[in-house]
């Protein structure tokens, strides 16, 4: 009795990814980045603003 090897359920999906889905993923990632760097950085909650400010400096991202 032979058993088939188990495959990861998403292994075939990664190889057959369409260009449209890749563009969509990149677009959403860019929008999330803009929100985190811009929207959260201008937050009126000082703890959130200061955390974002420190992360910008830690990643050598100019903010002022």
Report on the architecture of this protein:
The protein is an all-alpha fold. It has a domain at 20-58. It is built from 3 helices and no strands. It has helices spanning 11-15, 19-39, 46-58. The N and C termini lie far apart (68 Å).
Q: What is the fold's blueprint, element by element?
A:
Layout: H1 11-15, H2 19-39, H3 46-58
Provide the residue-averaged pLDDT: 78
Task: Please state the overall shape, judged from the principal axes of the Cα atoms.
Answer: elongated
Q: Report the sheet with the most strands, covering strand number, pairing sense and barrel closure.
A: none
Q: What is the succession of H and E elements?
A: HHH
Alpha-carbon Rg, integer: 20 Å
Write out key terms for the chains shown:
64 residues, mainly alpha, 3 helices
Short structural summary:
This protein has 64 residues and is mainly α. Helix content is 61%, strand content 0%.
